[in-house]
Amino acid sequence: MTYHDNATASLQDAPEADKTYFTLEHANRALPYVRRIVDDIMAVYRDVVALRRRMETDESDGSGVERQYQEAIDRLGELVDEVQAVGVELKDFERGLVDFPALADDREVMLCWRAGEEHVSHWHEVDAGYAGRQPTDSLGRA
After folding, report:
1. Hey, where are the domains in the chain?
2. Is 107 helix (H, G, I), strand (E, B) or coil?
3. Do the strands 122-125 and 134-135 form a parallel or antiparallel pair, or are they unpaired?
4. Packing angle between helix 65-86 and helix 24-56, nearest 10 degrees?
5. d(Cα 136, Cα 104) in Å, to the nearest integer?
6. Measured between alpha carbons, how far is 22 from 12 in angstroms, rounded to an integer?
7. What pLDDT, on a 0 to 100 scale, did the predictor assign at position 56?
8. Contact yes or no for 135/141 (Cβ under 8 A)
9. By CB neighbour count within 10 A (0-12 exposed, 13-18 middle, 19+ buried), where does 141 fall?
10. Which of 3, 24, 59, 67 could form a disulfide with 54 if both were Cys (CB 3.0 to 4.6 A apart)?
11. For residues 40 and 123, what is the distance between their CA atoms, to the nearest angstrom?
12. Can you tell me the distance from the alpha carbon of 96 to that of 83, in angstroms, rounded to the nearest whole number?
């Protein structure tokens, strides 16, 4: 099994020439930073959901809930932009699920991590999603 670093991936290997591709090692090195952003995303998302519920059920007395909601939405957008700038794809705000695009056997796959996992240890085909997760040691047999 061969992983290609972004710097060494040729254009014919890469489905998108300007896309960041991660090796398993690169994904795990980026994980501490990604984890902090994802933890923040999950917390802000919980706030957004709670504020939205308050607005929908009229539990608010008009004392700035709409403003708080908009601020939380803006912050969530900033955090999503930050994680996307790393080259990681956020898949689920609640579960903290992210994919790291990778190349394996000259095809694009996704290295998959979920909040709470110690390291990136799963992958799936681009079209398989979370349900198709497999341990990374199976990449050589895929």
Report:
1. 24-141
2. strand
3. antiparallel
4. 170
5. 11
6. 16
7. 83
8. no
9. exposed
10. 59
11. 24
12. 11
Chain mean position to CA 67: 27
Span 53-70, mean pLDDT? 80
Residue ranges of alpha helices (H) inside the chain are: 24-56, 65-86
In the Cβ-directed half-sphere of 22, how many Cα atoms lie within 13 Å?
23
Q: For residues 27 and 113, is the Cβ–Cβ distance under 8 A?
A: yes
- Total-model pTM: 0.80
CA nearest neighbour of 41 among 1, 92, 87: 92
Q: Give the pair of three-digit tokens for residue 75.
A: 């912050």
Q: Is residue 120 classed as helix, strand or coil in its secondary structure?
A: coil
Distance CA 41, CA 62 (A): 26
pLDDT at residue 11 in the model: 36
The DSSP output letter for 8 is T
Query: How far apart, in Å, are the Cα atoms of 115 and each of 1, 17, 23, 126?
Result: 26, 29, 19, 20
Residue 114 β-bridge partners = 97
Residue type, 123: W
List pLDDT tens digits, range 102-140. Answer: 999 888 999 999 999 999 999 999 998 888 999 998 876
